[in-house]
Amino acid sequence: MIEQLDHIAVKVTDLSSVRRVFEELGLPCTGIGQYDEVGMRIAFLGNRETRIELLEVTAETSPIANDKPGLHHLGLTVKDIEGVYKKMKEGDHCQVLGDIRQGAHSRIFFFKIIGQEEILFECVEIGEEGQRK
């Protein structure tokens, strides 16, 4: 099921300046992408042990446009994304938000735990060798 923490996602208002601070503190940027389909610019920082995803809204139509800056979600790696998705949909403990879809680096879906709805989680698909698909 869940393998490990993949990343911590933070919504920021100025991706470039936040990225520079982390880089100056020794956490390298491993990629930046513009994702017009979700109205965001996303940067990944870190290494194998520590990964931070910075989210900057670039369009009012972004699904996170009205979210406050700060901690946005926790990304968790899973090998069998369809199995985890099905188990959560059929169970009584999780609220699955949308379908499995292609994310920035792999297939993903989001969920919340019932009773703890203020915390957002993302499942990130990895292959057998532990790499994002």
Could you outline the blueprint of secondary structure elements for this entry?
Elements: E1 2-11, H1 15-24, E2 29-35, E3 40-46, E4 51-57, E5 70-78, H2 81-90, E6 94-102, E7 107-113, E8 121-125
Parallel strand pairs: 1-4, 5-8
Antiparallel strand pairs: 1-5, 2-3, 3-4, 6-7, 7-8
Secondary structure: helix percent: 10-25%
Uncertain ranges: none
What's the end-to-end separation, in Å? 16 Å
Number of helices: 2
Name the beta content range: over 45%
What is the number of strand segments?
8
**Mean pLDDT across residues:** 93
What can be said about the biggest beta sheet?
A: 8 strands, mixed
| CATH-defined topology | 2,3-Dihydroxybiphenyl 1,2-Dioxygenase, domain 1
Number of domains: 1
> What is the CATH class designation?
Alpha Beta
CATH superfamily: 2,3-Dihydroxybiphenyl 1,2-Dioxygenase, domain 1
Which strand order spans the largest sheet, edge to edge or round the barrel? 2-3-4-1-5-8-7-6
